[in-house]
Design brief:
Layout (H helix, E strand, L loop, with lengths): L5 E3 L10 E6 L7 H11 L5 E4 L10 H17 L2 E6 L6 H11 L5 E6 L6 H11 L5 E2 L2 H18 L2
Helix pairs in contact: 1-5
Length: 160
């Protein structure tokens, strides 16, 4: 069975091929994920994209939050590449937590970008310089997406 190319939370997916998770702000941020998916498509990215941003989040459903957190946790742990993008609109404390968690563990390749006006950019740079000096922090979404496409290609070549 062929793996789906795009999965939006809380959709099910098989992790038989290369997967790329879009980690970054959802609440209080524009839909940057849509732009990232378009760019990934334009660059011919050969991974299934896991997008935590739902087209419609059921705010009135008390189970939706736990379902969302559970889906994100599982998808982040199963992803081959995690693309982190920090926009300037909010501090995104959960995304910072996720970056710290995944930077400290073996597993997915991390690709990180932080808008030049992101209020915690200096913290992202300082922490990654110590925990993961091999990671470049990109200034734009397009540069971050391009680096993610390269990471996917490296993984695909290594698994052939």
């Amino acid at each position: 069975m062929e793996q789906p190319r795009y999965v939006e939370a809380p959709g099910e997916f098989e992790s038989t091929g290369t997967t790329l998770f879009l980690a970054g702000g959802i609440t209080g941020c524009p839909d940057w994920q849509r732009d990232a998916v378009r760019q990934l498509d334009e660059l011919g990215c050969e991974a299934t994209v896991l997008n935590p941003r739902r087209a419609s989040f059921p705010q009135d459903d008390p189970r939706a939050h736990d379902e969302q957190v559970g889906w994100e946790y599982a998808a982040l742990r199963r992803a081959d590449v995690i693309l982190f993008w920090f926009r300037p609109e909010t501090a995104q404390p959960i995304v910072l937590y996720e970056l710290g968690f995944h930077a400290a563990r073996d597993g997915a390749a991390l690709v990180v970008g932080a808008h030049p006006h992101y209020e915690r950019r200096r913290d992202v740079l300082a922490q990654l310089a110590r925990a993961r000096p091999d990671i470049t922090v990109h200034d734009s979404l397009s540069a971050t997406v391009g680096a993610a496409v390269e990471a996917v290609a490296r993984i695909r070549r290594a698994t052939r």
